[in-house]
Amino acid sequence: MAAKTNGADRQTGIQVIARAGEILRLLAKTERGTTLRSLADATSLPRSTVHRIVVALAGENLVVWDPERGVAELGLGLVSLALSRRQRLRDAVRPYLEALMRRVDETVDLVVLRGETVVFVDQVMAHQLLVVSAIGAVLPVHCTACGKALLAALPPEDVERTLPQELRVYTPHTITDRAQLRHELALVRSSRLAFDRDEHTVGVSAVGAVIRNAWGEVAAVTIPVPTQRFTGREEELGDALLATCDELNDVLLRV
User: Fold this and answer.
1) pLDDT tens profile 165-187
2) Cα distances (Å, whole numbers) of residue 132 to 2, 93, 205
3) CB-CB contact of 62 with 75 (8 Å)
4) Is residue 190 within a helix (H) or strand (E), and if so which, with residue range?
5) How far is CA 119 from CA 20, 112, 244, in A?
6) pTM of the full structure
7) What are the C-alpha distances in Å from 1 to residues 10, 103, 123?
8) Cα–Cα–Cα angle for 124, 129, 130, rounded to 5 degrees
9) Which residues contact 53 (CB under 8 A, 6 or more apart)?
């Protein structure tokens, strides 16, 4: 009888982990959190079950739970786990980000894809301070230079599965038409450079390109610049970025 109980307990534990994983994946698709009702509807679980799982995840710092608003979002604990997994990548890339920052005198970011969003895993700040993001920040994939560079690196059939159902408007320049975005991604694949011209934040533009290691893992290096400084420097910044990414691709093959 005891063996049966232990087996049942193990099965219950596996089910709880699977449900927690499903909830975390749903939260990864949103920037501003999700209500318990939405999570319950998406998982077909009772709200009481979702509530227990969310509270447990919050206790591990994997979720931020706001009981007053009834909203949950990913916590910094999960970001820390993701960052630690990429520590080797960061260590190898960091000197090249620093060299690129000195070359262009602009902030340089290292970004990876996470679901329908991008997460910033390293940053080298320039003297000309530009606060757009920080390590651990999460931004949309469809209207950022790093996001478009990472989308373009995917097989075309995976792009639609990665994009959010609705391409949210952030500025008057945000691309919200999927056909237009697909056309731009084709240009990115050809030129290896992705651009954000006031698409996510008015007054901020950026250029991004991808790097790959020997295992096929992909990250993006991006240079965000105030639009007034960016205009007229696109070619200079793009050339410097591609030169750095070419160096990094050679180095990462040996890491």
Assistant:
1) 889 999 999 999 999 999 999 99
2) 57, 21, 10
3) yes
4) helix 178-191
5) 21, 6, 21
6) 0.67
7) 14, 70, 56
8) 85
9) 16, 19, 20, 23
Q: Which residue has the tokens 């949210």?
A: 168
Q: What is the pLDDT of residue 7?
A: 60
CB 173 within 8 A of CB 193: no
Cβ(122)–Cβ(33) under 8 Å? no
Rounded Cα distance, 43 and 11, in Å? 19
Domains of the chain in start order, with CATH, are: 2-75 (1.10.10.10), 86-252 (3.30.450.40)
Report the distance separating Cα 165 and Cα 50, nearest Å. Answer: 23
Render pLDDT for 117-157 as a digit per residue (tens, 0 to 9): 898 888 998 887 665 677 788 899 999 999 999 999 998 88
